[in-house]
Amino acid sequence: MTDRFDAMSAFVAVCDAPGFSAAARRLHVAPSVVTRLVAGLEQRLGTLLLSRTTRSVRPTEAGERFLEHARRILAALDEAEEAAVAERTSPRGRLVISAPLLFGRLHVAPLLSRLLGLHAEMTANLVLSDRYVSLVEEGIDLAVRIGHLPDSGLIARRLGETRRIFVATPAYLAACGGPPAHPDELARYELVGFEPLYAGPEWRFTAPDGVEFRVPVRPRFSSNSGDAAIGHTLLAGGITAALSYQVADHLRSGRLVRVLEAYSPPPSPIQAVFPGGRLVPAKVRAFVALGESMGSAWQFG
Would the pTM of this model clear 0.70, i.e. be above it? Predict the structure, then answer.
């Protein structure tokens, strides 16, 4: 394909120069290269494009028609290349981002709105899902993910951190005679399961000495939705596990309080991940830079 564009460029240059030597100077190649490219083009098309004499080189009737098409094709190619270069050097075009449902709604969407306000030539599509999507297969430019990521070809940029915590309403804990002092006491409490955190019949805890252990649980209510699990907990439904960003407002207002704080695991990173490579689009770099500039905005202890 490259040879076909080179041959087309050589033919147009000969017509514009006019002549093979002048065209060669314009293209910064030897005259023999221009001669070979045009001859190959004529052979492939099976028609004579140039009428050559010792004094001049002019396009034939077929050459005139081909010249008109060639100019449009080369102009379109130049335009496409300019657009691609511009997309890499300045944020523009459609940015597709995947993020977890609740975190995406609460935090990624506002950040994306700020980004669009800064770059008028950008558009965005935010895909909210708690499952891990394949960026390449599903046409995703960038994903915001929570937790330590498996080794892959993706580039990861840390934007913040959050923590898995355990919460309940003050009223529920008072009705139970107080909060549990140790995870082994959970059997006497009603539990609310949030399946993306704990899909099995056990909850994981980290002892103060850093050792992880598991406790069997039987949630009375469970959901794959953080909103539903937290909503049930707020109705004095029991104790639930949540990521700290999911309940930050409720903790500040006092509607929920933390329990078993000494047994919460270490923080998990909030990261922007995107395909690796040397040429990262400017729209992706702009989102990551804006996320990194937030400082402590995405630090949920």
Answer: no
